[in-house]
Amino acid sequence: MPIGQLIRDLRKLKTWSQVRLAEELAICAGDPTGAPGRDAVKRWESGKVIPGRHWIEHLSRVLDVSVDQLAAEATLDRVNRRAFLGLSTLALSHGALASEMAASIAGRDPGPLARVQTTHSADMVTASLADKASSANLRRWTLDGDVPILRVNAAGILAKMPGQTHASHVARVLTHDEEVRRLYMTAVTSRVCAVDWTTAGRIAARPAAYGHRADFLATRFAREALNPGDSGARWCSSVMLRQLSPMIGRSPA
User: Which of 117, 162, 210, 230 is most buried by its number of CB atoms within 10 A?
Assistant: First the structure.
């Protein structure tokens, strides 16, 4: 959940007002009559401002929550804030690549899709440009593409097509193609949990090794499991939630 919502929920769990939380933080920081003040708490909880490391450490102490969890939530909020772009804005930043991809797909040329795994944003724009014939080409490549990169890119674009009409096909590909599943789950984990590619791959491959972060990871995947614009991300998140479920609620405070 956003760090502002987390702060609000923990404050209410203690039955504190925003003023009381501000007072406790000021005492913790060694300045009983100074910052942060109720207005700062209000801005944090509304999501208008993300608390910095200094206040995260004091929030951790007064709210009895792991500083690592608060820091992770703050980092993810910053990533999401930077990444929050409408399709029109995404088209401006990814338009040239998406146009090239869409043209190659329509022309039955899998070459550009076989070079490197495409980003979530580029897939979204490419999907918005693809027509019915292109969808048929993508479906074929998910099944008989020569390399995993081609198959996962084709699946990624299909998963984001308007109307989500290819959701069942994408689910079947992810279920039966181990290489596509590994690449797609790594990409989803990296994006959703704001971790680097190597760490994302480890989490996706062995979630049990990250039991100490199960609550945090489950919160991230639970949100993505409801993503209406990416059937592949929904499928991957559901799988991760199933694997994390035995560890949820056991993470250290």
Answer: 230
